[in-house]
């Protein structure tokens, strides 16, 4: 068998001299010969996929059925199908990103026993159609069950995913002699013990050293965003090859990539808000082929991305914990002798991490509201739930997923509709408190890592409970002469600050008023006007900044807090306004009135008008006080909250184009509706402008 397995390894790698890494063949033998349940904890690049594809090939030769592989990311699925093809394995995927015809084609191949392996995303295990029409049909014939990135099973892990909780239940209904392989590169003893507790006592463990000998680690404290951008621009000139720059939010990915492009660095943003999977694939391939210098990515580019010659991983902002950092920085240097891993940390990292910790779990009142709505309506589709609860669509989906894996679950999904079950439900407060405490502790450990003067690789390996970790001898603490320069070029810092201050945010008014279909009708005063034909639509506008963006966004935030906007914002707003393109330049300004801060925007609008040499008119007024717009979370509530909120002083307006100013823009409904009112009363064009955008934007 070893000779056969080695032959397959060389076919997969394309190398006639390839040999197994330590424990690789032993894992294959456990699965193919002994039908064991096995947890493999090995560093990224060790070859975990080789173990399960070679095992699949051997099991198929022995006459067993196909392998089920549960895999968390689409990028991982694409790479795995390509790897398996080198062994002549017929592998299909079945996941939610596929269209109806693609899923139907995969189903036909699976049911007719024409595939060697099926790769599924974990959420498929919660889909009744997949479970009843595919999994149940082949469950007695599965040759191997693989759980990739198994740390996602454990709520002690750094990357716990609720959908992984379904795996344990599925395995309980499978034949007891079916071999199971769970793999991960990021599991400390606590996570390993939890995985074993969930998967059962039959689970044996193969664990290897997690040392990444190619990695040269370094930590740098740079307090503000502009200086971090400057450091990046200068340092990337000295680093050979291509790599990944990790940022915590979509907005910061766009900022960093945009700035680097302005400095002549071929960098591109990569995050979950990209237009299509095709765009993500194209970016991944560009990096793999070294056609670009870097991808500036959120954690969306993580597990499964395989580039052996990746030269650097730089964290523009700190991740949430040491284990997550190890997983991400471990993308670099898999197949080369030397690679760089740098973590930057600054003044805003604590605030960003606090946001992620506080928003990790749904609130009890939100859960109760959603359960009541589902119960009262006896089955609702996702699109029908949105108009009935004041949550974003993303939050609704998160709560539904959270509830669906609770045992017993208070909801049942049948087809696309959700129903309330008979089970009472209470939020597991103790569990949530425990997990939040863990996250707080892990964040503090990351800060300790960043501030450590000891060997950095040794610190990471100890945190992962690696056996007898020795010093690496090459990190910035072990060998300071081998580190990158930590100082920031002041001229570049000034240039970066200027970039941030001139990074205007486009405002695109809503194309249509919210329509809730058969569920409700929104009674706008202007709802029956020909808005849908675009006759009452605003023009595109601009915001000066993003909220707390390290430049003008910070100045705006301070002004909101103090109750008066700084005069320093006048000239930048003038510069932005003058940079915009107009078919007909506005001749006056009006503003969005506020019942809670009546003079804040009004005073600034008058100052801005004086600087521009135009009139500022009190055209709009508050007709009815409503809850703050920022408390409205989805389009139905945002638009409904503004229904009839404003009136128009018809004696205080001109027909000429107008700049309509507000301090902040988020959902864009305020501009859309106020602008439509002005258009309704004869204003030819309305151009929205704002001091800042508070859109979460990732």
From TrEMBL:
InterPro entries: DEAD/DEAH_box_helicase_dom, DNA/RNA_helicase_DEAH_CS, DNA_helicase_ATP-dep_RecQ, Helicase_ATP-bd, Helicase_C-like, P-loop_NTPase, PRTase-like. Keywords: ATP-binding, DNA-binding, Helicase, Hydrolase, Isomerase, Nucleotide-binding. Residues 29-205 form the Helicase ATP-binding domain. Residues 231-375 form the Helicase C-terminal domain. The keyword ATP-binding applies. Its EC number is 5.6.2.4. It is an enzyme of class 5 (isomerase). GO terms for molecular function: 3'-5' DNA helicase activity; ATP binding; DNA binding; four-way junction helicase activity; hydrolase activity. One of its GO terms (cellular component) is bacterial nucleoid. It catalyses: Couples ATP hydrolysis with the unwinding of duplex DNA by translocating in the 3'-5' direction. GO terms for biological process: DNA recombination; DNA repair. Belongs to the helicase family. RecQ subfamily. PANTHER family: ATP-DEPENDENT DNA HELICASE Q1, DNA HELICASE RECQ FAMILY MEMBER. This is DNA 3'-5' helicase. It comes from Parashewanella curva.
